[in-house]
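User: Continuing from earlier, I have the next pair ready.

Assistant: Great, send them over.

User: Here they are, in order.

Assistant: Folding the first of the pair now:
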Amino acid sequence: MLLGSLLCSVALFSAACDDNDKFPEEETAPQPVWVDGDVRVLTTTNNRSKDLTPSAISFSSKDNMSPRSIYLDPSQTYQEIDGFGAAITGSAAYNLMKMAPEDRAKFLKETFSVTEGYGMSYIRICIGCSDFSLSEYTCCDTPGIENFALTAEETSYVIPVLKEILAINPDIKILGSPWTAPRWMKVNNLTDLQPTTSWTGGQLNPAYYQDYAEYFVKWIQAFRQNGIEIHAVTLQNEPLNRGNSASMFMGWEEQRDFIKQAVGPKFAAAGITAKIYAFDHNYNYDNMADQQGYPTKIYADADASRYIPTVGVEHQVPDDCAARPVVDSAQGQLLHVGHEVGREVGPVVPVSSGRLGENQLLVGIGGVDFVELVAVAAVVVVGSPGDVARRVGVGVDLGGIALLVGHVVIVV
């Protein structure tokens, strides 16, 4: 199967605003009028001669003169694409709930409906706070796992938005990721094992492996009690990043031991069917020599690998392409958690090994979604690497708070 130069990317955009700023009329994304055909397409050109212009592609066995042709060979199959989607952080949900209900319903339908919109099929949410939350918190800030409870960020914002999305697309899959464990479970490092009160950095105290595994179980069960099934979790967002506003370092040996000693058995004992996705960071392992091959080292351990069907990777550094072959040694799918900023991700490459391939992307898309400015865009790019996706979205006046949430576009 030849996929030409089909590229997947995420474009993130932000813009300064003040109380008097308004989005001009031409920046408002139009409601698409779909055209009949085998494949529905929305096209935005770099000179904007086409601006979210609907069209359709129909398959044919005849040659054509198009400079961009996609050839499909039904006899040759590879891995399936499980879905594409967006992140719903606390601040994104907060802003969405500030919209008028009819405007929010229209936007969510345009984004998630498989019949009347773009059909996004995957959502990433945060387990506790992220670097785009209303505050720094976890769901168990008081010491003792018996004190676990969802907070207002989940119950007032994230869960109501998820329920509205599920009403539009009941088949959507939801992935959860923590930015940090509760601080009482963290230590400064695994040598000194001194308690730390910092949201930033630190490591999970092995003495609390069982409590932290129970934390995941309780979080999944709490969402289920609210009518929301969690499809999968990663165990640490960016585990090699010590410097995020909320963060926790988790090297491959720690994650291996946490999986096989605690979270895997806890999920099994509690009947939790949510998948556990390993790693969730850059292909280049942040250039840490002792962390190279992070997920493959976990997969090499039979007691850990039986719990992890999938590897999560992010693409935030220019030299990621050189490190991609490592994912082919893993056992399941590839979860691609994107934070790309208007740059080329690389071709969707079919593989014949039956293992991981770039044509097997699950894309959980992170956005620049601060409390007072939201900008999220999911972009499928076809064209030269020099093309830059323009900002598209729905501009909403929230009394001085700007909301800009992007859409799926094609740049040619």
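And the other member of the pair:
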Amino acid sequence: MEMKTFEEFQQPFLAIPEPCAYFPAEISEEVRETVFRCLNRGEGISLILGETGLGKTLLLRVLAEQFQINDTVLIISHSRIKNEKSLLQQILFGLNQNFAGCEENELRLLFLDYLRRTVHERFILLIDESQYLPFSVFEEIRSLLDLSNGETSKIRVAFAGNLKFEERLAHPRFAALQQRIVSRSYLEPFTRKETVDYIETELQRAGDLFEKVHFSAEAKNSIHQVTGGVPRLINQLCDHVIYCSLKQMVPENLLNPNELELELSLKNNTESCCCSFIQKNRVVQALQLLDTVFIDQSEISNAWRTLQQLPQESSISLTNCSKMDCSSEISSSLTKDETFSVPNLTALDSVIEFGSLDLEEDENNIELHSEENYSRQESDLDALKSESEQSDSD
């Protein structure tokens, strides 16, 4: 039997935000329709707000696909823009315009010239991770919004960011920008039903081999409970549990000889891309050898504990999971005293997104240094007063 590689199949539960994997959950669709309307009609600035992992970047890419048929669309999806010059450079780079050696004002003129030459096209600017942009960049964008084609604004803007971004916009210095904001849309985690539907939709989207994979009803409930309905965590958990369930099912003598040779040559290679290549091929080849793969609740529990590096698992009653939004929905479908073994849910609070720890530590250090400086200044003032009083008495 000739074994095919993973490149010949679509993969479910993608780690990157691809529009093909967009799931039209109720809240997500409401947000998409609202932002699309505001951008299409030129009503003003739209905000997409939500915590980490809820699909803000994916939603921006879906919107970009909708507009790019008739409009010029640019997504700025990183937080390395530190001033107006870097913003203009990023825009011109996305528009394939030559800006080598140009100063800030020249960059601005180049962009204005591009807009003049494309007077009948709308320019859609979608900015991700907006909470990291400095105030000067927001002011530059606000000034660009005044450009028009005679009737409506030439530039349409949508910002995506976390809830701290909204708090930041409440500062008085953002008052002028605030007046231009016409919609604030909030993304939320999937409900239990949406989590179940999403898992099935992803397996069907991948098609062929992955339709052999079946999650039990209890396994789907467990997935929603431990992930809280966060799409990114659902993807991570489902991808990991499929791999863990299949990695031992393919004897080496049944592997594609070419793939086995590749694995042996990469055995000591620690690059993640190589490890991922080997893992995906084992999954695909295992699925080609099996008729059905059934994943139960215990495998979900073990995979989540391994994925999050949790030290132990505990027996938790479904009726006591009030911390998660899904508790009432899950408990309604099971008996009152039914329990099952899942990782300790309190560990969810300790899961830190890559990069967030350093930022929080920096903020804490700034506050700490400020307090230390204040205390040091008070001590110096007290010492000066004591010396002055002593000199007066002498």
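Worth noting for the second one:
The first strand starts at residue 45 and ends at 49. Residues 15 and 21 are 10 Å apart (CA to CA).
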